[in-house]
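During the reporting period the student researcher (J.K.) took over the structure-prediction task from the postdoctoral fellow and processed the backlog of single-chain submissions. One of the processed entries is reproduced below for the supervisory committee.
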Amino acid sequence: MSRSRKYRSLTVLVLFLLLLGTAVSCSSNQELVGSWVITETDDSAFAAGMIFEFREDKSLLITTGYADLDPEEKESFDAAYRDVSLTYRSSPDGTLNITMSIPQKGSLLIRMSYELTGDRLAVTDEDGLTLIFSRQ
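J.K. obtained the following structure tokens:
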């Protein structure tokens, strides 16, 4: 095999590996995509029955879902999240980062870890508060 042909083959192999690596890293959060309902919570800000929807575009929607809340609590929750934009990033090592952006107030990065077992998702924040979800 000529030297230029070897070089071309090596270049093609390197490009293929780079593309493969990019595809794997871009899809690292795909395991969370979908709707998850809270079944247990240590955090008083959330209630069993609330729904977290992890979307393919890396946005996150949180709704009151089936939570047993009175109308005032639902309105308060909806008002708190009305102008909030949530995005997420996850990695196969169990790292979950959620960015909360509020117009004219800035953004906040929330670092968490997650453990996914079948249709059960456990998310724990830096203070040790845990939310347990079931895939819908």
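The committee noted the following: Residues 29-135 form a domain with the Lipocalin fold (CATH 2.40.128.490).
J.K. will present the remaining backlog at the next meeting.
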